[in-house]
Design goal:
The chain has 158 residues and is mostly helical. It has one domain. 75% of the residues lie in helices and 0% in strands. It has six helices and no strands. Helix 1 runs antiparallel to helix 2. The chain is globular and about 55 Å long. The termini are far apart.
Length: 158
C-alpha cells in the first residue's frame, strides 16, 4: 500500500470514528440527568446528530471517492466502532462495569468481520467467490434507480 492510499484510509477512519463518536455521545449525553424534560433532552442531543450527519457524509464521500470500502464494510465498521464506543461511554461516563462477556462479544464481532471479508469459509469449502467490479456495481445502482423512477410513474409519487 502506498503512502497516498494510507493517508486516504487514515482520513476516512478519522472522519468515521469522529462521526460515530458524536453520534454515540449524543445518544448517551442525557442519561445521567434524571429530571430533564423531553425538550431539554432534545436540545442537548440534536447538535450531536447534526454534527454526526455532517462528518459522516464527508467520511462516506471520502470512502466512495477513493474506493476504500464497500457499503457492507461501512456497516461492519459502524457496528464495531459503535460497540467499542458504547463500552467506553458505559465505563467512563456512566460508571458501569464492563464485563468479560462484553469483551468476548467484541472479539466475536471482529472475528465475524474477518470471516466475512476474507471469504475464509468459502475458500475452505472450495466455493467460488464472485469478483465485484466497479462497472457491475454501477450497473446495479443504475438498474435500481431506473426501477424506482418507473415506480413513480407520471404522478411523481410512488
Amino acid at each position: 500500500m502506498n503512502n497516498e492510499k494510507l493517508g486516504q484510509y487514515v482520513l476516512f477512519l478519522f472522519l468515521f470514528i469522529t462521526a460515530q463518536s458524536l453520534s454515540m455521545w449524543g445518544q448517551y449525553v442525557t442519561l445521567p440527568f434524571k429530571n430533564l424534560s423531553m425538550w431539554e433532552a432534545y436540545k442537548m442531543a440534536i447538535p450531536f446528530a447534526w454534527m454526526d450527519w455532517f462528518v459522516m457524509t464527508y467520511a462516506v464521500q471520502v470512502g466512495d471517492k477513493y474506493d476504500l470500502v464497500t457499503p457492507t464494510q461501512d456497516t461492519f465498521l459502524l457496528i464495531i466502532i459503535q460497540f467499542s464506543l458504547i463500552l467506553l461511554i458505559n465505563h467512563f461516563y456512566l460508571k458501569q462495569k464492563v464485563y468479560r462477556s462484553d469483551i468476548v462479544a467484541f472479539f466475536i464481532i471482529i472475528l465475524g468481520f474477518y470471516v466475512s471479508f476474507s471469504n475464509i469459509v468459502s475458500h475452505w469449502l472450495n466455493i467460488p467467490v464472485p469478483k465485484k467490479t466497479k462497472e457491475k456495481d454501477k450497473q446495479v445502482t443504475h438498474n435500481k434507480k431506473l426501477k424506482y423512477l418507473r415506480s413513480l410513474g407520471d404522478s411523481g409519487y410512488p
